[in-house]
Specification:
By secondary structure, the chain is α+β, with helices and mostly antiparallel strands. It has one domain: Glutaredoxin, CATH 3.40.30. The chain contains 4 helices and 4 strands, in the order βαβαββαα. A 4-stranded mixed β-sheet has the order 2-1-3-4. β3 and β4 form a beta hairpin. The N and C termini lie far apart (32 Å). It binds glutathione (GSH). The site of glutathione (GSH) has 10 residues, from loops.
Length: 89
């Protein structure tokens, strides 16, 4: 998987979640100040020109924080276990 992120921005929550899940992924830095998000390559993944973007192993991309977090929680057992703990408490 590839996570497109900007340190110190709203992508940090997804970055931390993926680290907590012990996922192996490529982290790609997107410099919003210099316009990395507006390149044709980035817009092909995320036409909204925002971070975070998660490119999954099948090549499809998720581009909304909530959608990425939900998909990660549903897709990886460690996350599901934690969700179960929260539901039971
Ligand atoms: N609805 C999106 C919003 C993402 C968003 O607005 N990200 C900001 C950074 S926190 C961004 O990429 N801004 C683009 C820019 O500043 O050009 C989500 O929840 O993922």
């Amino acid at each position: 998987m590839k996570l497109y992120l900007t340190p110190g921005s709203c992508s940090t929550g997804i970055h931390i979640l993926m680290e907590e899940l012990d996922l192996v992924f490529e982290a790609h830095l997107v410099n919003l100040l210099t316009g990395d998000q507006n390149t044709p390559e980035y817009l092909a993944m995320n036409p909204k020109a925002t971070i975070p973007t998660l490119v999954r192993n099948d090549g499809t991309a998720l581009t909304e924080f909530q959608a990425i977090a939900y998909w990660l929680v549903r897709s990886y057992p460690k996350a599901n276990q934690r969700a179960r703990i929260f539901r039971e408490s």
